[in-house]
Specification:
It is a single chain. The chain has about 80 residues and is mainly α. Helix content is about 90%, strand content about 0%.
Length: about 80
Amino acid sequence: MSDRSHDSDEMWRLAGRYSAIGIEMCAAVAFGTLGGVWLDGKLGTTPWLFWIGLVVGIGAATRAVLRVVRDFKRSSR
């Protein structure tokens, strides 16, 4: 395999690995927020569980970003 082809394969491999982080972040925040809204509706605790769900979702998204950064640093060494 040529050097150019190897670089292209490596680029696509990295793009595939790191491109899903946006979807993962959106899903974490959405599930946390919607879960909080749903629980608020069921338990009558509006808006407390919404805010808790939002914070948990943002925390999960932050953790996902930190995981990707750590993996990127480890692979670039």
